[in-house]
Amino acid sequence: MAAAHIVGTFAVWDYVVFALMLLVSAAVGVYCAMSGGGQQSSQDFLMGGRKMTAVPVALSLTATFMSAITVLATPSEVYQYGAMFILFTLSYSLMVFVTSEVFLPIFYRLGVTSTYEYLEMRFSRAVRLCGTVLFIFQTVLYTGIVIYVPALALKQVTGFDLWGAVMSTGIVCTFYCSLGGLKAVVWTDVFQLATMMAGFLVVIIRAVLLHGGFSVIIDDSQKGGRLNLWDFDPNPFKRHTFWTITFGGAFVWIGIYGVSQAQVQRYVSCKSLNHARTSLYLNLVGLWAILLCAVFSGLCLYAIYQDCDPWTAGLISAPDQLMPYLVMDILRDYPGLPGLFVAAAFSGTLSTVSSSINALAAVTVEDLVKPYISMSDRKLSWISKGLSLFYGAVCIGMAAIASLLGGLLEAALSIFGIIGGPLVGLFSLGIFCPFANSTGGLVGLFSGLGLSLWLGIWGQLYPPYHSEPLSLSTAGCNFTVNPGGQNWTQSLVAQLVDGWYSLSYLYFSPAGAITVFAVGVIMSLLTGLAMNHGGELDLKKCREIGLGTNNPAFCSSELDLTQRKAESNISSIFSP
């Protein structure tokens, strides 16, 4: 792969802006650790004492969602494939509605710290451990990539030191996570979201002024076929249509917001259910704003480079370098502004990594330590801080491993989404099917996970031919073009497997979720009937022999609270 062409290099003021972003983030961590009596218990450290309010949690939810990969990749996606990505506003809306009305009430009323505590209450400890292990695996893998990939893209275009950026962001993030816990993560997310918005707005304003106004950019995008918003083709093998983005995308993001520890931990830390629900709907507005900025940035990219595509011309070596290239091209004469955009990109990295570290510490303490080792809350607080340090180091190490993966990086990112689908199916099985049992949950989970991984990995190895981008031109370049970019000639093997493996990547998650749900229902019914020997499903008898328990959030009238209190300290949630 050819090296990228460096348009300009960082000036002193660019480094000052970037360093200031890191300094403010670290200072917030110190303040949160020292204010309010410090972190006296594991609940203070991991859940902010469950006293958080709606607005900062909403901003934190938005910042956590918007990683540096989003800042760099979404404009590139629009530049190559068009503005249909804006339809994710609909999938975000569906996701927030389902999360706030289905998953939020359950997790909040149960008072869980780890999302996967519910799986033991509903199924068994084995199911809980499977959910925990899958979350740890996907989060460590994804977090390492989130640290490394944007640093590589920025380094190749701006000359920004790669490992200096990786180490500085990793160390600062680990520092304030270990010191200030969830409060520090939430309040630094607020600052980092503001930085991300500022970075986007600087690029958009400069591009609009340079190109002659909003209307000119929209007109050029229309002529170039980039405003291809409405495609109602029901073909599931097309990469993006109204249906794949709206419904397939909703499944993907429900996996992130509905059941993923990194997001659930934030809204259940609110001081009331109303605050938690409000935080989700306010977060929706934030998601719309960030997505609108990212999509319009992609249209700015196309309007400016419509006649001289940097990728095809060989000026950059990968599409994720388009935004850094644009920034250095149009802002290099304004000291500090390129640094602001880089600070915005790494703010996305910090917000995602800090949330991941805090969530990893929470599930480790709640799922792998507390059930097996009895200790005081003070000791658990210190263990939580130690685990934050440990996972910070692990994520930095994963970034080093990511540098060796090469072309497998995209596949690894897909695996992050693929694992979410089966977990959505597992939680949905427990919530909506009172007869579902542990056997059904486990068999369904592994069936759905196997299908999702199979589709995802093969889909990456043999990408469908219809993933070719829209037309890109180099006719207006005032230099000799050195052809680069992507070769879209489909291999013979890809033609042979095209079809089943050409399923839109946004359908991998619903395919996994539906498989888990369907297999779980069938296995639960079969095992229930087999153990009853009478040909009819007896829910009471199945519970007595340990095949499953009622949903502790929805079926309280059927619970023996006296017995449950002896087994678990959750009966208090059913009191008026």
TrEMBL record:
The keyword Transcription belongs to this UniProt entry's keyword annotation: no
Gene3D superfamilies in alphabetical order: Sodium/glucose cotransporter
Keywords recorded for this protein, A-Z: Cell membrane, Ion transport, Membrane, Sodium, Sodium transport, Transmembrane, Transmembrane helix, Transport
Entry's Gene Ontology molecular function annotations: organic acid:sodium symporter activity
Gene Ontology biological process terms in this record: propanoate transmembrane transport
Source domain of life: Eukaryota
Signal peptide: none
Topology in the lipid bilayer: Multi-pass membrane protein
Bilayer-spanning residue ranges: 12-33, 54-73, 85-108, 129-150, 162-186, 198-218, 240-259, 280-305, 340-365, 386-405, 411-435, 442-462, 505-531
Coiled-coil residue windows: none
Pfam name, any one: SSF
One GO location term (cellular component): plasma membrane
Localization, UniProt: Cell membrane
Protein family: Belongs to the sodium:solute symporter (SSF) (TC 2.A.21) family.
Family matches, as PANTHER family: SODIUM-COUPLED MONOCARBOXYLATE TRANSPORTER, SODIUM-COUPLED MONOCARBOXYLATE TRANSPORTER 1
Protein name, UniProt field: Solute carrier family 5 member 8
Natural source organism: Scleropages formosus (Asian bonytongue)
Organism lineage string: Eukaryota, Metazoa, Chordata, Craniata, Vertebrata
Name of the coding gene: SLC5A8
